[in-house]
Each structure stands twice: as C-alpha cells, then as structure tokens.
Amino acid sequence: MAARPALIAPARAAAFEVLRRVFEDGAYADRALRAAAAGLDARDRALAQQLSYGAVQRARTLDHAIEAIGRRPVRRLDPPVTAALRLGAFQLGFLDGVPRYAAVNESVELVRRARLERAVPFANAVLRRLAERLRPLLEALPEGTPREAALRHSYPDWVAETWWRDLGAAGALALLRAQNEPAELAVRLVRGELEGAPDPLLPGAWIVHRVDEAALAEGRIWPQSRGSQLAGLCVGAREGERTLDLCAAPGGKATMLAGEVVAVEANEARAAELAENVRRLGAAHVQVVHADGRTLPAGLTGFDRALVDAPCSGLGVLASRPDLRWRAAPLPELQLELLRAAIARVRPGGTVTYSVCTVNADESEAVVDAAGLPLDDLGAEWPAFRHARRPECLQTLPHVHGTSGFFVARLRVP
Fold first, then answer.
1. Three-state secondary structure along the chain?
2. What are 339-359's pLDDT values in tens digits?
3. Active site residue 357
4. Residue of 234, 247, 312, 357 marked catalytic
5. What angle do CA 93, 96, 100 make, to 5 degrees?
6. Which of 190, 205, 203, 149 is nearest to 172 (CA)?
7. Going by DSSP bridges, is the β-strand pair 407-412/346-356 parallel, antiparallel, or unpaired?
8. What is d(CA 334, CA 343) in angstroms, rounded to the nearest whole number?
9. Which of 116, 348, 372, 374 lies 20 to 30 Å from 366, alpha-carbon distance?
C-alpha cells in the first residue's frame, strides 16, 4: 500500500507559491499573495502573509545561513528548493511558537510536491541542521558597518549605506530593524464612522486592526499610510482653487484635495484604476487625465497649486512592500523633470508640493535644491514631522513616527 502524502498547511503552501512567484517570475508579493491565498480563511491568509512577506524580506540573511550551514551556493539550487529552504529557515530563525518539526517536515514536503524527489534528502539534511544552528548564527552576525548591517538585516548594501550617510549609524540601524516589522495599518476616513483610533495630528487618519472590506467597497474609507496622508494635507488645496496632481494613481492624495483637481497618470492601466477609485470615493471634483506629466496638453496650465508625488526608490515603504528592496532604484533625474514640469504649469505665487515615499537625500533634498525655488516652512506647520537637517521640510520615519517614510517640501513659484 502506498504511503499517504504528508500534509502541508494551506498557509505554508500559499507562502511557498508567493516565494516562487516573486523570485522566479518577478511578481509583486502583494499580488502574488492575493492569488495564492484566494479561498483561505482570514487566519490562514494572515499566516500566509507573515510567512511569505517575512521570507521575501529576509532572503539575503536566509541565503547566507543556508549557504553557511548547507555548504552549497544558493545559486546552484533548483528554485523550488531555494524557496522551500527560505520558507523553512524563516520560521526556524525568526518566528517563535512554530514547532520545529512542522517547519522542517512541511518544507521538505514542498520540495517533494515540486517533483524534485532527488533534492529531498539534501533539503531534509539542511533544514535539520538549520533547526539546530540557525539562531546562534543569526545572533552572531555583526552590524557595525553598513555592509555588515545590510547582511544581518537583509537589505542591499546600497540601502544601508544610504541610510548610514543620511541618518548616522544609530538611525540607520533603527530604520533597518523597523522596516522588517509589519507595517502599521492606517486608513483615511472619507465619510461615516469607523472602528479604530483617530490620529491626533492628522485629520481623517485612523489606525485600524483590519481594513473593513465593505466600507472600502462603498468608498467610505481608503487604505493610506499616515505619511501619505500628511503629504496630501501639505498641499493645502482650498475650495475655489485649481490643483494639478501630476503622478496621481492610485488616487489617495488626489481625492483628499479640495477644489478642482486634475489628476494625471502616465500608465494607461493605472489611469483606469485611478478613475475607478475616484468614482468609488465619490470625488466628482477630480478629473482624470491619461498623459505623461512631463508633456501635458497645452491647456493644462495656470494652476493655483500642484502636487508631485514622484516615482521613487520607495525606501520608506519597504515594510509594506517586502519585495521592493530587491528591485528598488533611485530616480532623481525623473523626479526633477516632473517637478520642473509642474512648476511650469502653476501660476506665479502658487505652490508646488513635492513628496516621495523614501528616505534618501538624493531623491528628496537634492531634487528640491536643484529646482532652485524658495520653500514654505512646513516644519512650522507640522513640527512633529520636521526634517532633522532641513527644518523647512518634513520627513516621516518608520522608527520614529510609526508610519511610512515620506519626504515633503512645498515650493513657492515666483
């Protein structure tokens, strides 16, 4: 009689699928999870997210441990074997309360289910050694230099080096640690009531334990970090004014703004998503335009205000986007082009708010300085978020403010 196949918990099976999609197909972790966890109950879906996001974030550290203990380069392993080892190692190294046998046995079974029977003995041997030796290895990793810290906390070297430069060693280490923790769950209350805790400083911002899917579908709330909401509030748009949002999708900030709003998005699919979100949130004052913000139609000019929430490396949102650290790149040239394009469309005396969801001076202060315009004193308006080096600007930091990392400046057009 044939042996019955070992059981694999649904959450582990889904997490394994996410890891494979991210590292083999280049998929975004959140979208891969949405597909892999479809049909799971809330508890299993939450566990699948914890396992997959954690293993994606910690991939560099996990690979170091797998190579040190398994004595074989990860690049030489079959991708499903790598995914199973990463998943098992994450549970063994970073999660408390997970039985060793479950982490080891189910990870081995994932290799077998991937039809790699020849790799099963190797995976089993490595995982059993990891169960005994992984935690001491992780605890012994140094963090005294950017490169050491990048390995210990699982980031590309350049990210740690950037934060070391901009925040100093203590600040960089705190940020490295913070962005490996689950991100705060915040929403903007559009209308109605909500269960949660209102932010004392940011009107409309609420901290919640879960997103109410019914309220989201009805347009009563919008998932949006407090850092992102701060950027929208800094625009200062008023009734009777015209505001240009140059990089508007998915629409969280555009739909916050008062007055007449022109929301521009270059990507056709994202422009369609933006239009749907505007409709859902009941923001009839927002007009969606599918266009490249650098080459707008001639008639889009004379605005009172503009918002440039520019594409960026995303180093302030790595906690909520676990795969981003492995694909992120600074975009200062594009950011400056977009900022200058917005300045050209705003009337004299108007303002342009520039924001990026990153912690990187090359994409924030340097871009604003290159624009060469005077800055409003946002630090005086929002002292809790005042930038340490540039007090007229704002910088939220995950390890300080508990929200995503956003830089915000408001330029005055002469």
1. CCCCCCCCCHHHHHHHHHHHHHHHHCCCHHHHHHHHCCCCCHHHHHHHHHHHHHHHHCHHHHHHHHHHHHCCCHHHCCHHHHHHHHHHHHHHHHCCCCCHHHHHHHHHHHHHHCCCHHHHHHHHHHHHHHHHHHHHHHHHCCCCCHHHHHHHHCCCHHHHHHHHHHHHHHHHHHHHHHCCCCCCCEEEECCCCCCCEECCCCCCEEECCCCCHHHHHCCCEEECCHHHHHHHHHHCCCCCCEEEECCCCCCCCHHHCCCEEEEEECCHHHHHHHHHHHHHCCCCCEEEEECCCCCCCCCCCCEEEEEEECCCCCCCCCCCCCCHHHCCCCCHHHHHHHHHHHHHCEEEEEEEEEEECCCCHHHCHHHHHHHCCCECCHHHHCHHHECCCCCCCEECCHHHHCCCCCEEEEEECC
2. 999 999 999 999 999 999 999
3. yes
4. 357
5. 70
6. 149
7. antiparallel
8. 14
9. 348
Please tell me the pTM assigned to this model. 0.94
212 vs 193: CA distance, rounded Å: 11
Q: State both tokens at 250.
A: 């998915």
Structure tokens at 165: 């430069």
* One-letter identity of residue 7: L
Tens digits of per-residue pLDDT, 107-159?
Answer: 999 999 999 999 999 999 999 999 999 999 999 999 999 999 999 999 999 99
Give the contacts of 13 (CB within 8 A, at least 6 positions apart): 110
